[in-house]
Design brief:
single chain, 287 residues, mainly alpha, 13 helices
Length: 287
């Protein structure tokens, strides 16, 4: 005999829906509050401080020779780092997603290493290897080759912290896509390069652009590793993040926040493009 009251299921369902609505609204409000305090408020503060003395002071700070040199060095570092990281990421993702070989797990672990190692430690490692008292420092000094406190050291430090981004974005994507289309193209007589450019690249293009975007943002905003190897030489080895620190420490608040507004703008653009690329990637996977 059924002894369960017929009223109970609908009553329980009503309570569950009511609780879910309350929790949902509370979480939305909490999320908006956190975004406002930790994202919107800092961005607003940067812009307010950057324009505290007017547009003329803001423009003057960005056109200062040291600021211009920092911007150029930041762009140069990104221009060197991003293509190298992209080539490595595509190659590593292709090898890991398409082939089985001994040491595959070790390779994946090494790719993830920069995520777990402090950038400052990475910078110290390069100083230990290429510094004046480092393992190869005397040889480079004898041949008048500058690594530490020069552009090559900055590029090496930036490469270390950025090379996982493209690879880690492409590996799961290529594993999910599979290799049936590539095998079909090869069986029909396509060469390896033809298969890559006609089949593989169109399938991974949005994920690749997403990884490149994150890599570029990290390359232009890196501070810890670059700070160790740069030497903080004005007009020569100060990237934009280092220039912001120097300006702030010297009480040039308008200059510091004006430079910071450029990186803040980069962050906002990165978030917008990132959202678009994620949407396009999902649309391609559904199709």
């Amino acid at each position: 005999m059924n002894t369960i009251s017929p009223v109970m299921p609908s009553r329980t369902k009503s309570l569950t829906i009511g609780d879910a609505d309350w929790v949902r609204y509370a979480l939305v409000v909490l999320t908006l509050a956190i975004i406002g305090v930790f994202l919107i408020l800092p961005l607003a503060t940067v812009l307010i401080e950057a324009f505290a003395k007017g547009w003329t002071a803001y423009a003057s700070s960005l056109t200062h020779p040291d600021t211009v040199a920092a911007i150029k060095l930041t762009l140069l570092t990104a221009a060197i780092t991003v293509p190298l990281t992209t080539v490595f990421g595509v190659s590593a993702a292709w090898a890991i997603a398409r082939f089985e070989f001994r040491g595959k797990s070790l390779l994946i672990t090494l790719i993830d290493l920069p995520f777990s190692v402090s950038p400052v430690i990475a910078g110290l490692i390069y100083v230990l290897i290429f510094g004046a008292q480092g393992w190869f420092g005397s040889w480079f000094s004898d041949h008048d080759i500058k690594i530490i406190f020069a552009v090559p050291g900055i590029v090496l430090a930036t490469l270390f912290v950025t090379f996982p981004f493209v690879a880690r974005e492409l590996i799961p994507l290529m594993q999910e896509i599979g290799h049936e289309e590539e095998e079909a193209a090869l069986s029909l007589g396509a060469s390896g390069w033809q298969t890559f450019f006609k089949i593989t690249l169109p399938n991974i293009k949005w994920g690749l652009l997403y990884g490149v975007l994150l890599c570029n943002a990290r390359a232009m905003g890196e501070f810890g590793a670059v700070s160790v190897v740069s030497g903080h030489i004005r007009g020569l080895t100060n990237t934009l993040p280092l220039h912001i620190e120097v300006s702030y420490n010297e009480y040039d608040f308008v200059g510091a926040f004006a430079s910071a507004s450029l990186l803040a703008g980069l962050a906002v653009v990165t978030l917008v493009v990132k959202t678009f690329l994620e949407w396009k990637q999902k649309q391609d996977l559904k199709a």
